[in-house]
Amino acid sequence: MKEVFNKETLTKIYPKILENGFYILANVFLLIFIMYPVFTVFLQSFYGSNGFTLDAYSKFISDSYYFGILKNSIVVACFSTIISIFLGFIFSIIIFKTDFKFKNFFKIAVFLPIITPGFISSLAYVFLFGRHGAVTYGLLGLEPNIYGWKSVVIMQSIDYTTTAFFIISAVLLGISGEFEDAARNLGSNEFQVFKKVTLPLLIPGILSAGLLIFMQSMADFGTPIIVGGNFNTLATASYFEIIGRYNTQMASTLSVILLFPSMALFYLYSKYHKGYELKKSKLTKYSLSNIQKIILGFPAIFFSILAYLLFFAVFVASFTKSFGHNYALTLDYFFEAISAGQLAIKNTLFYALSSSILVAFLGVAYSYIIYRGKFFGRKLMDLVITLPFAIPGTFMGLGYLLAFNNYPLLLTGTSSIIILNCMVRKLPFSFKTGNSVLSQIEESVEEASLNLGASRLKTFYKVVLPLLEPAIIFSMIYTFIATIKSLGSIIFLMTANTKVLSAMVFESTINRQLGVGACYSMFMVILSIIGILGILRLKGDKKWI
Q1: Residue 8 confidence (pLDDT)
Q2: Partner of 107 at 20 to 30 A CA spacing, among 194, 368, 395, 497?
């Protein structure tokens, strides 16, 4: 016994015990905070007052109302996806492949939807273009009824164009201009170069963007509530089943049905998405005539004017007494927002900081375990970590509400449940980003460390982690902004003490308090900018890790 537990033996087995313990903890975390809530929602959809039942599913099949909202969800998602892809594609071409003047005008316009909460943009849309809107009634004397599916499509398209732009641009920047130059040298004109060279190479990126946007549209419940009028979707119906009637069985059933098209599309997304990265390839620009520039630029100019108008409306509404009626300057809404929203501001900042730090390091740690590891179940772990990407936010929020409201996992009403929910929702991005960076790091670097006697954990901490700095920074920025705007997955989990700014914006929007809601939105914009600048400072000359 004395020989077995001598100091030398302990020194050898201690890193192994620590390493195995780390693997076990990593799997336990995935089981408890991803699989358990998902399983709970499935179980609840079959559980009624008398035990196991299929009543909710029978009701869904027999009631034409539910088939109608399923059809509504699919129709809106199709239109929003097509329009967003078209606009994102146009912006990518204009910004990276043409010599358009005033490109910054387009760049800022396509980025504005990221920092403007969708709910307040929808409300600004109503105040600008509604029956008594500043533009429709104030300037044109029209009184249109804008509530309905068309307005939902318009607002979702504005919101998702940025997503399409990012994905398509990433693919476009990776296409070498040498292919296009070769086609030109063979006598092709600019349209033929685009049709025969550029467009076919962009198809995988367009498909990936389309599938991602379709899933986001299916899960969106805020936009239909604000500008949809009596138009309902699966996501809004699920929301009202919880908030209005607390019918967890029907809400779970609707969430499960909503999950199926998302999972099918996620499978296709995984198949076509190849982990595009920003590459510094040689770019060549199209030589366009003035007529071609006008045709190409018209949709982008229209979108840009609308995006600026909505953001400007939010900004003006925060400083004026009554947007559209009385433009007298006032700071009353700011004072009211600060007075009522102090706790929400503090919570938002705390949750965003906590989530961004934890997600960044957890994501790259999982990347290292799975990408470099050679153990049984590696692919299953990969699938489980990526799963939250395909699950609608309301589904995961409902899962956390049902799974963590009893001992020994009682988390309901705490800040921890919100941070954990935000972490799990953003973990796939950090994980995939970590994989992309790891694929560019030679394994020989780690092998040298291991051959010198360092354990795998020490190699990860001392060698790999510093090389993963880009993945950590990008993950922190993405998670920080996404957490500030997050609402769908945490709306069922908040209490008066854990409320965040996005919820304050949503409540103000529902209550038609545009001024106060606009002020909360401005706070979110300011926090996002401060967070991005603060995280980017980590990339300075000073050693940060």
Answers
A1: 64
A2: 194
Domain count, the chain: 2
Query: d(Cα 430, Cα 355) in Å, to the nearest integer?
Result: 11
Per-residue pLDDT of 356-379, as tens digits, reads: 999 988 988 888 888 777 777 788
pLDDT in tens, 334-351: 999 899 889 999 999 999
Max alpha carbon distance in the chain (Å)?
A: 94
Q: Answer whether 98's CB lies under 8 Å from 293's CB.
A: yes
**Which pLDDT value is given to residue 83?**
96
Other Cβ atoms within 10 Å of 8 Cβ, number: 7
Would you call 350 exposed, middle or buried from its count of C-beta atoms within 10 A (0-12, 13-18, 19+)? middle
**25 CB-contact burial (10 Å; exposed 0-12 / middle 13-18 / buried 19+):** exposed
158 pLDDT exceeds 70? yes
Q: Are residues 496 and 352 in the same domain?
A: yes
Q: Are strands 51-52 and 320-322 parallel, antiparallel or unpaired?
A: unpaired
Number of Cβ atoms within 10 Å of the Cβ of 469: 15
The helix/strand/coil state of 343 is: helix
Residue with tokens 């329009």: 83
Judgement on whether residues 300 and 351 belong to the same structural domain of the protein: no
Helix (H, G, I), strand (E, B) or coil at 51: strand
Last residue of a domain, one of 283, 300, 329: 329
pLDDT (tens digit per residue) in 174-199: 777 777 778 788 877 878 888 888 88
Is the domain of 283 the same as that of 347? no
* Amino acid 416: pLDDT: 93
Give the tens place of pLDDT for each residue, 15-66: 666 667 778 888 899 999 999 999 999 999 998 777 888 888 988 888 888 8
Question: Residue 386: exposed, middle, or buried by beta-carbon count in 10 A (0-12, 13-18, 19+)?
Answer: middle
CA atoms within a 13 Å half-sphere pointing along the CA-CB vector of 295: 5
Which tokens belong to 460? Answer: 């990860």
> Long-range contacts of range 127-131, CB-CB < 8 Å, 24 or more positions apart?
127/313, 127/317, 127/323, 127/324, 127/514, 128/309, 128/310, 128/313, 128/324
Report the pLDDT averaged over residues 229-249: 83
310 lies in the same domain as 352: no
In which domain, by residue range, is 521 found? 1-43+333-544
DSSP 233: -
User: How far is the C-alpha of 63 from the C-alpha of 57, rounded, in Å?
Assistant: 10
16 and 69 co-located in one domain: no
